[in-house]
Predict the structure of 3-oxoacyl-[acyl-carrier-protein] reductase.
Amino acid sequence: MLLEGKTVLVTGASAGIGRAVAIGCARHGANVALNFSRDVDGANAAVAEIEALGRKGIAVQGDVSDPATATAFIAKAVEALGRVDVFVNNAGICPFHAFLDMPVDTFERTMKVNLHGAYFMVQAAANQMVKQGDGGSIIAMSSISALVGGEYQTHYTPTKAGLHSLMQSVAIALGKHNIRCNSLFPGTILTDINKDDLADQAKRTYMEGRIPLGRLGQPEDLVGPTVFLASDLAQYVTGASLLVDGGAYVNLQ
């Protein structure tokens, strides 16, 4: 119960990594507010699981690409749950596309959701933490794609590198308020964002063969690292990053 008494906010939490993290934090004692964009049924089901664990949970719908969504999410979470102790920026999209004919709207939408949305969400959460006066933890769900390239991810990888850079800078800006800011770098995790790409069994087998631990990741693999960074066990960890990729990044041979 590493998060007993804490309130955790997670964006993009109706499915995938966000949902797993939201429920995982509840298992560790937290009350949870989750943001979602479209999947009402998924968000409500996640809240039901959180409440079944004896914790408070709410779901707030909103598109993170709109800066107004950030202030609304924080306000509604505070109204329902009282405060913000941990903020997990997870919402993101990756519409795979080639570089040379990248549509302007695909590029701009990816930037607005993944990076601009993160900026304003983190800013809103940080302002609430500063107002409370007793610190907090901000965690950005970056990606191994912040460190390596991707032929069909030229619009996506810069956003994930930008997320980590944002965490490094806000770690400095918010340190005096005892707000810790860190990044997680998931590897290939089986979620809706890549299910079509990994429907090719040959590609999936190849990817699995490149991972020292011998398997692709599951959303639940991000729960432990998130809970650690959210908890008091990480009270002297800020501006840091943690790979959660089964060893894929280091497997260069």
In short: The two ends are 40 Å apart (CA to CA).
